[in-house]
Amino acid sequence: MKEAEPGSPSIGGAASVTTTNTSAALNVEEHASTPPASDRHRTGFPKQGGQSMSYWLQQVRCDPLLDHRTSETLPKEADTVIIGSGISGTLVTKHHLETWPSKSVVIVEAREFCSGATGRNAGHCKPDQWRHYGKFEKAYGKAQAIKIMNNESATWKALVAYVQENNVDCDLWVGETLDVPLDEDVAKAARDVFERYANAGGKVDHIKVTHDPAKAAKISKIKGATACYAWQASTLQPWKLTAHIMRENLKKGANLQTYTVANSITSDGSGRRKWTVRTDRGAIACDTVVHATNAYSAALEPSLRGLITPKPHMCNRVVPPRALSGSKALCNSYGVLLADGALFSINPRCTADGNILFGGSNPGQRALDEWVEQNPGNCINDGLADLESVTKCVKDFVNEEFDGWREAEFGPGEGFAYSWSGIIGLSVDGVPFVGALPGKEGQWICAGHHGHGMARIFTAAPGLVKLMNGKEWGETGLPDVYQMTPQRLEKLKKVDVDTPKVAII
């Protein structure tokens, strides 16, 4: 293996290369969210062993749900098999049980319960309320672009309502999230998109906008702010939310089987059922299969090769120093917009422990992306941790932009504690796939969330179950462009490089 050049970041023990900046963009030509043109067909099954431990998973090591198996042996048959136990699979199970209480449901999970993207994200449920309008309008037209924004707002409201109505212990915070451009060109692009969205009839009355840099810096506490956009969003402990829902599912008769890898799906030869889901612990005959494996979908379903691509992404946990805790702690969540489409997603866990989580498309992510392109077998490697190239960008940002950080004294237990990896599922056209798998009667999918699933799945999952129950697409309330159709599938298989690009939020 080639040694890293002096000064270049080391990724997973291999050398990486630095890249030059391109022109400023508002997460439109996003460098960290584009399926690699060189190997868009790469895929793989969940990594078995050696995964990094996310902050969320660290908190629940004694929870028996992690390795729960409802029955000692794998059921030989069921009405429905749901593959994946993240927020998609768990919510599909919830709505399935409510729709068909008498039908049997088995959820198979390759590893620990909810140990994929849901258990590894940065803890945001942040509806995009304007920023991506420009790219969606270009790709799908004004009406669909507005519908996407409205759906994300509806998703956030549905999630918050569920948590509050059911008293879910998941560290829910509801407050103002701030989008803060740090570059004058990015600020101009942001203003242009916002005004075009408003002029098209998009809802903007709930967004507080500040274009004066001095005021924006005061509101955001970010020195280099050139503008500030504020609206309501949430942060939460995503594993705990998903676990609460799954426990309710189990009470209603669902069968959860962790550490059970689904290897293939074939026609059932017995004639009693439509499909056989083959796993490393045996086979389950069933009539309905739901693919809720997000980034891993194409490994199990060949027709999705090139449509959903896995890619590792990093999240950093930072323990603020004492001088910047208590009354001086951050009290908003953030999307910090940088040149070249880079983004810091910041979750300060305001109503919980105050640890600050940095996600999003950190500029240092580019080195990781290039390493994965050179080493494509690592497209599903969520065993990466403490990558210097990513952590350095977080350190540089807080030292430069947050008052007092550079001068603060960090004692033991404070500072840039840890970073971990998760695998995001990049859809080739930037929006998820929801609906029936073409040519596979009885197989359904809710996947390809592009690193933005928490702001989509709470409406996408119940929408999918409505389709499974024979409802028309219009009854789901979802944007039309999310629908999995034979036409969309065939069109995307012919696409090469001219595909819409959507940023990681």
TrEMBL record:
One of its GO terms (cellular component) is cytoplasm. This is DAO-domain-containing protein. Residues 79-455 form the FAD dependent oxidoreductase domain. Residues 30-50 are annotated as: Disordered. Residues 30-42 have a biased composition (Basic and acidic residues). It comes from Cucurbitaria berberidis CBS 394.84.
